[in-house]
Design goal:
NAD(P)-bd_dom_sf, SDR family NAD(P)-dependent oxidoreductase, alpha/beta, about 45% helix, 7 helices, oxidoreductase, binds nicotinamide-adenine-dinucleotide, about 240 residues, 8-stranded mixed β-sheet
Length: about 240
């Protein structure tokens, strides 16, 4: 495991009150960071923020105004911002391959899984530039690297953000801003829901939220701009080798 000392640093975690988010917030706090927890669920965000001595912010990451306001609030509260983990996300919830497409649901999915990442990165970059650099980590998915026929629309959103991370990572590298993606397979959280009964545990061993926190720690220490990291049980992580 890579050792990381985040003493004096400030982190913002979106979806910080969910399964992966809570493990990440606890880990960042344990490593010394002061943490802002952003989530739609105000009560759960407050609970985890209080546990780690951080602050809770409730808001919808898909709304264009949320991320700029949150970054401003975090800078006002803590005086700086060093790490932004754009982690909030939802499942597709429909096939999305025929005339039964529920357009409202599809737009919501794109709002949370894709727009949020663009709004979050664009809002964070000026703050990180003022610091002389920083880290932006996006929770994508193995569905951002491979096809997941059980959820084509989720696959679409996660491929989109992996592509964005690869390109934005290179675009921002000279600013000292390291943008990376985490690409876990199945993680034991509420999001997994019914799919937990269906997946092949041999092909995709179930990960724990703490495995993702462990991988995040490695990526904060070793990640280079534009990389997408795959994660094994136990949290062992490695950069995915793209062709070309
Ligand atoms: P989760 O449902 O436990 O947590 C997601 C959190 O995001 C919840 O607290 C929820 O309230 C919050 N959220 C949802 N919509 C929001 C919005 N519009 N604004 C603000 N907050 C919002 O799920 P999780 O498994 O912890 O998911 C975290 C991330 O990990 C997601 O991006 C997900 O796609 C990704 N991921 C999950 C798995 C898995 O198998 N669970 C696998 C790969 C990637």
């Amino acid at each position: 495991m890579s050792t990381v000392d985040l003493t004096g640093q400030v982190a913002l975690v979106t979806g910080g009150a969910g399964g992966i988010g809570v493990a990440v917030v606890r880990r960042l706090a344990k490593l010394g960071a002061r943490v802002a927890v952003l989530d739609l669920d105000a009560a759960r965000a407050q609970r985890i923020a209080s546990e780690v001595g951080g602050i809770a912010i409730s808001g919808d990451v898909a709304a264009p105004s949320t991320m700029p306001a949150v970054v401003e609030q975090v800078e006002k509260e803590f005086g700086r911002l060093d790490i932004v983990h754009l982690n909030a996300g939802i499942g597709g919830g429909q096939a999305g391959v025929d005339a039964a497409l529920d357009v409202a649901r599809y737009r919501k999915l794109v709002g949370v899984n894709v727009d949020h990442v663009v709004y979050g990165l664009c809002a964070a970059v000026p703050a990180l530039r003022r610091q002389g650099g920083g880290k932006i980590v996006v929770t994508a998915s193995l569905a951002g690297l491979t096809a997941m026929p059980a959820d084509p629309l989720y696959t679409l959103t996660k491929h989109a953000i992996v592509g964005y991370v690869r390109a934005a990572g290179k675009a921002l590298a000279d600013d000292g801003i390291v943008v990376t993606a985490l690409c876990p397979g199945f993680v034991d959280t509420l999001l997994l829901g019914a799919a937990k009964e269906e997946f092949d545990a041999v092909e995709f061993p179930l990960l724990t939220p703490d495995d993702i926190a462990e991988a995040l720690q490695t990526v904060l220490a070793e990640g280079t701009p534009g990389e997408a990291w795959v994660i094994q049980p136990g949290g062992q992580a490695s950069a995915y080798q793209f062709r070309g």
